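debug: dumping io for the single-chain case to check the tokenizer round-trip. Nothing else runs in this session.
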Amino acid sequence: MLYRSTRPAVFGALLSSLLLPTMGHADELNGANTAWILTSTALVLFMTIPGLSLFYGGLVRVRNALSVLMQCFTITCAASLIWLLFGYSLAFTDGGSLNAVIGGFSQFMLGGVLEDSLSGDIPESVFAMFQLTFAIITPALIVGAFAERIRFSSMLLFSMIWLVLVYLPITHWVWGGGWLGEMGLLDFAGGTVVHITAGVAALVAALVIGKRRGFPNQPMMPHNMTMTVTGAGMLWVGWFGFNAGSALAANGDAGMAMLVTHISAASGSLAWMAMEWLRYGKPSVLGIVTGMVAGLGTITPASGFVGPGGALIIGLSAGVICYFATQAIKQKFQIDDSLDVFPVHGIGGMLGTLLAGVFASDQLGVFSGQGYGEGVTMASQVQVQFIGVISTVVYTAVVTLVILKLVDVLTGLRIDEEDETQGLDITQHNERGYDL
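debug: decoded output
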């Protein structure tokens, strides 16, 4: 969520001068930029409800479909209140002596976010709301890892603690003036902040909570692929707000981010489809939409820094690498990450963050990106990207494990066998989304 810069080393300074509400404002509101970020905000919220909800809801068995919709909807509501109380402040204000790792409480309850206050050249209220939509979708992504077997109360408690202890600090590290942003990490729209954190948390959650009954021997087919493809289409369209909106302006940066996002989604879809076609003799609808998500997640950190050629390579790489990662997680390691959150979002986020350091180079001809700027080489930028990936993975894994163990002690993570057999719709919500 940065304006592009020819010098990654000054990203932290750009954040301070352009984004942080406590560090100075533009003199005048830009109506065109404001209109675009208002639109982008709606698009990103549209990604969670209804996009992700339908995408996930169709992938589970029929007796658990409503539970997934309920989880996504509740996370949207609860995350919004945390953002109001202190989330925005901790992510995007100056934390004083702790600013390298976390912000402060100077905008508790969105204090100071007034009708005429600006962040850059857009209303601060719009910026805060735009950022909120990212805080909503990130814990919602994790839902796919423990679908069909977690207590609703435990899901909600885990998601909110995780939002505070994992999402907010890493958001500050990268976009709020923290140490990774100051180091020059390239993450335009959330490779580390959204996809790696959600993916790694999903893997840890799947390991701690354990497999669904019958996995991997019992087939667990999606109950409604029409619902899933509908949700996938909504995600694709909404992702333009996710990536192109992260330019925070209606300009060439946003236009290029939109273009490369679309190219990566298309190439990721076709690459995944091709892998299935070669291996099984037939392409699947589930495969092509999963490849789309892989392509979108992988281009996210690079979307503001690479050109169309780089996006093509990134998308193709995502389709192939995330496909094999999914096969390995499910078949070789037999980890029940129910809806493939880690191999698609986690691996995709890592791959995209590293490749952003490669294809941001303006020395690659048709693949050229924005360029590194004076004194920065491809090797040094990839090193920074690697540090960003490793630090995000380690921090997320450790803190997620601690949160899961705490929630297990407080409420118990998993439903019992009888409730799992009946399904979460009835046992957790006393409702059905289908007729007997």
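debug: round-trip ok. Residues 378-410 form the longest helix (33 residues).
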